[in-house]
């Protein structure tokens, strides 16, 4: 009977060790799945926050340069003047009523004394 007790205790110990290994394996798998979910959530949250910061920065710059102290000073608009400028005196029309200017005579070259 002693021989039978040792065999069954070896089987019990092997079964117990197998259950322990299975429990540890299952715990590791759950931890890895949990870690993967957390990393995915953290990545999405980080990307969302970074996008919001960028959008707020752009909106802040736009507001600063359109409404705030960075806005350009409005240029004063000139008021229309009511003075009437005199029109130039009418000139004689060219030949045959064209608007082209009349030809001018070319000056004669002068000679210089040799000396």
Question: What is the N-to-C order of secondary-structure elements (H for helix, E for strand)?
Answer: H
Number of strands: 0
Q: What form results from the Cα inertia axes? A: rod-shaped
Poorly predicted regions:
none
**Structural class, from helix and strand content?**
mainly alpha
Mean pLDDT, all residues: 83
Which range best describes the helical content: under 10%, 10-25%, 25-40%, 40-55%, 55-70% or over 70%? 55-70%
Please give the count of helices.
Answer: 1
Quaternary structure: single chain
Question: What proportion of the residues form beta strands (DSSP E)?
Answer: under 5%
Q: Can you summarize the main beta sheet?
A: none
Gap from first CA to last CA: 156 Å
Rg, Å, rounded: 50 Å
Can you offer a commentary on this structure?
There is one protein chain. This protein is 57% helix and 0% strand. By secondary structure, the protein is mainly α. It has a domain at 2-71. The longest helix has 65 residues, at 2-66. The mean pLDDT is 83.
Q: Secondary-structure blueprint of this entry?
A:
Blueprint: H1 2-66
What is the compact description of this entry?
The protein has 1 helix and no strands. The chain has one helix at 2-66.
List the main descriptive attributes of the protein structure presented here.
rod-shaped, single chain, 115 residues, mainly alpha
């Amino acid at each position: 009977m002693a021989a039978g007790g040792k065999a069954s205790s070896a089987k019990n110990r092997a079964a117990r060790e197998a259950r322990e290994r299975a429990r540890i394996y299952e715990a590791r798998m759950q931890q890895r799945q949990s870690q993967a979910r957390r990393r995915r959530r953290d990545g999405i949250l980080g990307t969302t926050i970074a996008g919001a910061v960028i959008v707020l920065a752009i909106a802040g710059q736009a507001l600063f340069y359109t409404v705030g102290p960075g806005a350009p000073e409005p240029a004063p608009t000139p008021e229309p003047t009511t003075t009437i400028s005199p029109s130039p005196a009418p000139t004689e029309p060219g030949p045959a009523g064209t608007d082209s200017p009349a030809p001018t005579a070319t000056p004669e070259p002068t000679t210089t004394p040799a000396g």
